[in-house]
Amino acid sequence: MSARVSELSGLGLLTWVYPPGLVDRVVAACGCAEQRRRLLPARLVVYFVLGLALFSPAPYLEVMRHLVEGLRGQGLLGGWHVLAKSSLFRARQRLGCEPLRVLFATTAKPMATEVTPGAFWRGLRLLAVDGTCWDVADSEANEAAFGRPGNGRGPGRSAFPQVRMAALVEVGSQAVLDAELAGCRTGEVTLVGRLPRSLGPGQLVLADREFLGVPLWQAFTATGADLLWRVPANRVLPV
To answer: How many angstroms separate the CA atoms of 110 and 141, rounded?
Structure first.
């Protein structure tokens, strides 16, 4: 865990980006609100899952202790006490992923202004698309859900299952505006093809050469956005 000042500022960031009222509305809309008074309120579980990412690789109980202390200090939590790790596992399962998906979709908006360095070019907001892969915990469930790539050095496989992500990012603020995740056997081009839903006029979208192709180009230009994509060295374009 990082220094205490960083921990508390990180918690303040969570409650600023995801205000408690918004979290409660999303949890209720997703049908995840507690039907009775549980030892782990749904609001706290949402902040806990977000905190696991923000404070990674801190252990479960350490993240929860800091969340409880910080939220109580902000007057957002009553006399709740940290329980066993198994309770946190079950609470995450009850919550599911839908509230986190809806929270992201609700708050993932451009943040840069005209004075943000590198955010605009000739009046167009600069965005970029790209992809990456992450290792996830080596478990049977993760391998079944996401797959395990080859190791590139023979018939063996990677030590960990992997998740592939494609994202649309605002260049000036580095804010993620949209993202798609899938197993490692799903190609980046497939995931990037789902991102035009978040584009529109007044934007200039940057992309690397592996994404250049007629279907993607047509899908992106249909949104009204302008494109600036790299071209493979062996591609001959009309002049």
So the answer is: 35
